[in-house]
Each structure stands twice: as C-alpha cells, then as structure tokens.
Design brief:
The protein is α+β, with helices and mostly antiparallel strands and about 350 residues long. About 20% of the residues lie in helices and about 40% in strands. The strands form four sheets. A nine-stranded antiparallel beta sheet has the order 1-9-10-11-12-19-16-15-14. It has a five-stranded antiparallel beta sheet with strand order 8-7-13-18-17, with no helix packed on it. Strands 2-3-4 form a three-stranded antiparallel beta sheet. β14 and β15 form a beta hairpin. It starts with a strand and ends with a helix.
Length: about 350
C-alpha cells in the first residue's frame, strides 16, 4: 500500500504536493519542499484545518435579488514546513544547486506517513543522503511532525538545520481557475509570537470570522547540536548547529501543533501542551499508534480486487484519502478536495459525503 514517484521532476512539484500531502481529518499539510519556495518551481504552500474558515464578499458581474453577499473559505494556516539544510555552508537546493543523484517520493498508506528520499551532491562535491518523513497524527489530531535525517557519504564537517515558522501567509489564487479564489487574500493576522528554549508559539486570528489559531513548535535536534530559537513580528526561526562524521546519520525533528477556538477554549495552551507531550513521548510513540489505527482501518475497510494491480492501488489511495480528509467532530465535514489544497475553497458537497458512508 504505497504511492511512489521516482525521479526529480520539479515541473510536477505542485501535483506531488497534493498527492503526497499528510492529513488526519483535522489538519492537512501539503507536501511542499522543505527548502522553501524557489523561483520557477510551481508550488502552493498550504496548511489547512477542517472547518476553520474566514468570510469574504462575493463579487458578481450582475447581481440580482436574493444573491448571497458573502461566502466562507478555507484559511491557509501558519507555515511550519520550511527546514533549510546547510552542509559546510552550502545550502541544499536541489532545483538550482549541485546535482540530484537519486530522488523518490513515497506515501506509505499502511503506516501513515509521507517520505522524501534524496541523494544529493553539493557544488563542492559533498554527497549526502537525505530522508524526510512527515506525519499528521491520527492519535492526536492537533499534532504534525517532520523528521529530517541526513547521512554524510563522503565527508566530515559542519551541518546546520534552520527552521522557519511563518505566520504571515496568504491563500492561493488563480484568476483562470474557477475552483479557487481569483484574488490573493490574507485571512490570518498574527497577534502574538512567543519563544521558549525548545521552540515557540504563534497566535493568530482570522480577519472577519474572528476565529483564533495557535501554532506551537518544539524541536529535537541531534545530540550535541546547539539550538537557538528567535522570534520576530510574524515568524519563529530556529537554528541547530553541529558537526557530523562521514557515514554518520543525524536526525532533526520538528513537532508542530495547531489548535483553534472552535474546538478549544484556550488554543494556545492546547498547542503548547501537545508539543511538550510530543517531546516527551518521542516520534516512535506516535508512529506505533499510527500503525495500530491504520491496521484496524484496513482490516475493516479495504476492498480487494484480484487481477488488476492498478485498480487496487487506486482504491487503496482513494480510501486512504477519504479517511484522512473526513472530519471527526461536531463542527467539521469533508471538503471537496479534502485537506490537500484550496480547491473549491474548502466547500463541501452532498455527493462527497455519500462516498464516506460505506
């Protein structure tokens, strides 16, 4: 039960962001490149929450009596995806620097995570094997975490991991695509940025619907690495510096939690407690729970087709996508594009709900 794309094809990046997204019915994170936005590479950086919306006016070329004045739309949330890697001062930028010697994206639907595997040679000839794993927890809906592993293949030297958590984000827009907004709008306004020794918190509020969002992060750097976290008006920046030896494998872990005011009386406290618990429990704890939850899901829900592998794979992916998109509380539902993107601006349709019942 895997979806696998091999070979580095940056022109297909936006498609892969959708297909390899991670979600759990509460939050959804597109599979955007950790190195950040790169000019010329199609990307829709997005993180979404089921039933977390803002209100905006509807514009008509000809408006008639009874037409609605406003509509609700899904909100792009605080961006926690950016983790930049520096190897002896050289930044990992596969689209423009060095050479990609091997590349694979994988969605493991049995264990519930997405993975990006890269063999990269820097402009100065240093080779690394990079493995980046993402998971939206099915056990703790507020929790998302990212494990960034680096193995030095032909050198020893200095390594830096740099995480950027950005609160100043906008929704995607395309005037030529009727499924998304025609104009780029910022629906989330940063109110507070707080820093602590292991991470920080960004509190925001929607412009019109007045919903609160708290996004907390904590970091687990490799042993011996020095972690420094700084805050600014709209972002958190964390840098972890250290050394690695040839053949050594280092892992940098980001734990992120998203909590909103529709479900929590104190979103900030909920988000901060979630990442504190994650630091204490460790990634393996949530990976084990993910496997157990999905074992039960597949045992009860998988449809088996004999003699057609492509159809079987399509059914597995469709069922998994539905399961990860469907809301599980009294305020949420399932959007037409699930939690994979902003198609139809997060609206839900009656026919999509029908697909869930079986």
């Amino acid at each position: 039960m895997e979806l696998i794309f091999e070979g580095y094809q940056p022109e297909k990046n936006a498609l892969e962001e959708s297909l390899f997204h991670t979600a759990n019915g509460y939050i959804g994170i597109r599979a955007c490149p950790e190195e950040g936005e790169v000019q010329g590479i199609p990307s829709i950086r997005g993180t979404y929450m089921n039933a977390f919306y803002d209100i905006k006016p509807i514009r008509y070329s000809e408006k008639l009596y009874g037409f609605p004045e406003t509509q609700q739309g899904i909100v792009n949330l605080t961006d926690v995806q950016t983790i930049k890697l520096y190897i002896e001062g050289e930044q990992f930028l596969p689209s423009s620097e060095g050479e990609v010697l091997g590349y694979c994206r994988r969605l493991d639907m049995k264990h519930g995570f997405a993975e990006r595997l890269i063999h990269w040679r820097s402009p100065k000839g240093k080779e690394v094997q990079i493995s980046i794993r993402r998971m939206a927890s099915l056990l703790v809906p507020e929790l998302f975490f990212l494990q960034y592993a680096v193995k030095a293949l032909n050198f020893s030297g200095k390594i830096r991991f740099e995480s950027i958590v950005l609160g100043n984000v906008s929704n995607y827009a395309d005037a030529n695509d009727p499924r998304v907004a025609a104009e780029r709008l910022q629906h989330l306004v940063v109110e507070t940025v707080r820093v602590d020794e292991q991470g920080g918190l960004i509190e925001s509020r929607t412009v019109t619907s007045n919903l609160k969002l708290a996004a907390a992060v904590s970091y687990l750097p490799p042993r011996g690495f020095k972690l420094q976290v700084d805050g600014a008006a709209d972002r958190l920046t964390a840098k972890a510096d250290g050394n690695m030896s040839q053949g050594e494998n280092l892992v940098f872990i980001l734990f992120a939690a998203f909590a909103d005011s529709r479900r929590h009386d104190d979103p900030a406290s909920k988000a901060r407690q979630t990442v504190r618990d994650a630091l204490q429990n460790g990634a393996a704890f949530y990976e084990k729970a993910q496997r157990e939850i999905l074992d039960e899901f597949w045992e009860n829900s998988r449809v088996l087709v004999k003699g057609d592998e492509a159809l079987q794979n399509s059914l597995d992916y469709s069922l998994y996508s539905l399961y990860c998109s469907c809301g599980r509380d009294e305020v949420s539902s399932i959007a037409a594009k699930g939690l994979s993107g902003e198609g139809y601006e997060g609206h839900y349709f009656w026919d999509t709900e029908i697909y869930i019942f079986p």
